[in-house]
Write a structure and sequence with these properties.
Layout (H helix, E strand, L loop, with lengths): L5 H19 L2 H29 L2 E4 L10 E4 L1 H28 L5 H20 L3 H20 L5 H31 L4 H7 L6 H19 L8 H7 L2 H27 L1 H5 L4 H21 L4 H21 L3 H32 L10 H4 L1 H15 L5 H15 L3 H27 L14 H19 L2 H16 L3
Antiparallel strand pairs: 1-2
Helix pairs in contact: 1-2, 1-4, 2-3, 2-4, 3-4, 3-10, 3-14, 3-19, 3-20, 4-5, 4-10, 5-6, 5-10, 6-8, 6-9, 8-10, 9-10, 9-13, 10-13, 10-14, 12-13, 12-18, 13-14, 13-18, 14-16, 14-17, 14-19, 14-20, 16-18, 16-19, 17-18, 17-19
């Protein structure tokens, strides 16, 4: 039955779409294939998520080679939920690309853009579903190499520098990860993640295990852009095409966060990672630094894309703060914020892309009077900003509420205060946009007033509406986050 092959189809569909697009070499057919492939991935991800939640762990052996000898795709509520998020973001972003890419990417590169988007999507989904440590590295490189090209396609010449910076940092991160899994292989003789989880506790010498943990943690933290390993992210988001900024902000770092959670709680286990180690304390300190320092930097940005980029680094701190609590409640908060921030930041970048389409840039000064010239886009951007702050009625409030609740359940009342205090910094940088857009006159020689085309506006509005929807009714997203947290903490059984 076709339903038995959903894990492999989720990765293969966008992977096959990429060479088809290269053969077509024309803009509209390439966009159409990419859009249909994105819709197909979401159509596959939904029943796969339902199966994982209802049935538990799904094992899919590649080429009928039984694990751990062969490569296995292993699906549970955690990676199925993140795969759903990635697929959902792809469906939002691809319709936007039709008009957005035409204005931000050179015409002769359009088909390559869509091919790279499909490779990136396939790589991210492969990272999530694979049950093999080295296969994870392969998919990590597929998504990363595609990302480097996508960033470099920005028309600003600084996009090339940003892509090169990301390439250097990404290569270092991938190298550290490979060293870590090499140490694990030498120690256990297996690369199957589920088999590693079984064999590692029986290993006599903990030093090799801890060295592998350190290499993998730092390597993945570079991909996450965990403070202070975030230096590649602001330029990558600021100078890449708006569709790329939205897609990466909503998916790439989130997938890497899942990988870190999987290794911490399922492979190494909570005892090795947190008990009698300083891992939790270090992660907590870095999370708090991420919540405050990049938020302060965001306040002083003169470019809205860079402002959102530093905001993303700050929001990643909330997710890793949940991980540092090493409890099901903390993991639930982390996964919930992973979902809610993907919708919020993806929607804000798409809204900003429409503004850039009209104004020709994302400098804050260009947006003077935007509340009158582009009222719908301005209002949508403010709603997204309220979600970043964590105002009730938005998705951001739900995940911060989960985080505060989890901190108090662990007796860490002061962390609840830190979460609320850091949210005040978000008020300041969101207010900077409000002040410019609603309380300043448009500059002389201002471009003609008018909203962005519907093909740009509607996908952005859909994501912002989703922020409000999941802020008012968080029952489904909360239940999925809880199921994902329990799957991560419970291990692959």
């Amino acid at each position: 039955m076709l339903s038995q092959h959903l894990p492999i189809l989720l990765v293969v569909v966008p992977l096959l779409a990429a060479p088809i697009i290269v053969l077509l070499r024309r803009s509209f057919p390439s966009w159409l294939v990419a859009t249909l492939a994105s819709i197909a991935t979401l159509a596959i991800a939904l029943p796969l998520l339902a199966r994982a939640v209802s049935e538990g762990v799904i094992s899919y052996a590649i080429g009928n080679w039984p694990p751990p000898l062969g490569i296995e795709y292993r699906v549970d509520a955690a990676n199925a939920f993140v795969a759903f998020i990635v697929s959902l973001i792809g469906v939002f972003v691809m319709p936007y690309c039709r008009r957005g890419v035409s204005s931000e990417v050179r015409a002769e590169e359009h088909y390559l853009f869509y091919a790279m988007m499909m490779l990136c999507l396939s790589g991210l989904l492969g990272i999530l579903l694979t049950g093999d440590a080295f296969n994870l590295f392969v998919f990590l490189e597929i998504s990363s190499l595609a990302t480097y090209v996508l960033i470099a396609m920005g028309r600003d010449r600084r996009a090339l520098v940003a892509s090169y910076q990301y390439l250097l940092m990404g290569t270092i991160g991938a190298t550290l990860y490979v060293i870590g899994i090499g140490l694990l292989y030498l120690q256990t003789g297996t690369l199957n993640l589920a088999d590693l989880a079984v064999r590692l506790p029986a290993m006599g010498d903990p030093r090799a295990t801890l060295a592998a943990l350190a290499f993998i943690t730092v390597g993945i933290s570079l991909k996450i852009a965990l403070f202070p390993l975030h230096l590649w992210l602001p330029n990558a988001y600021a100078y890449s095409p708006s569709a790329v900024s939205a897609f990466l902000a909503a998916t790439a770092t989130k997938v890497s966060i899942y990988v870190l959670m999987r290794y911490f709680f399922t492979i190494f286990g909570e005892t090795v990672v947190f008990d009698a180690r300083y891992t939790g304390v270090i992660l907590l300190a870095l999370s708090l630094a991420a919540m405050f320092i990049p938020a302060v930097v965001a306040i002083f940005q003169t470019d809205v894309k860079r402002l959102l980029a530093y905001s993303s680094v700050s929001q990643i701190g909330y997710i890793t703060l949940g991980i540092s609590l090493h409890s099901v409640g903390g993991l639930t908060a982390a996964v919930a914020h992973l979902f809610n921030h993907a919708l919020t930041k993806g929607g804000m970048f798409l809204v900003l892309g429409g503004v850039v389409f009209r104004l020709g840039g994302s400098a804050l000064d260009r947006m003077a009077g935007l509340g009158r010239t582009m009222p719908i886009a301005s209002f949508a951007f403010v709603i997204g900003g309220l979600s970043l702050i964590g105002i009730p009625g938005t998705a951001g409030f739900v995940s911060k509420w989960y985080l505060v609740t989890a901190a108090m359940a662990e007796g860490q009342w002061w962390l609840a205060g830190a979460v609320m205090l850091s949210s005040l910094l978000a008020v300041i940088y969101v207010w900077r946009f409000v002040e410019v857009a609603y309380f300043r006159e448009p500059p002389a020689g201002h471009p003609p007033a008018g909203e962005a085309p519907l093909s740009l506006l509607l996908p952005a509005l859909a994501m912002i509406v989703a922020c409000v929807w999941f802020g008012l009714d968080a029952s489904w997203s909360g239940n999925m986050a809880r199921a994902a947290a329990e799957a991560l903490a419970g291990g692959w059984k």
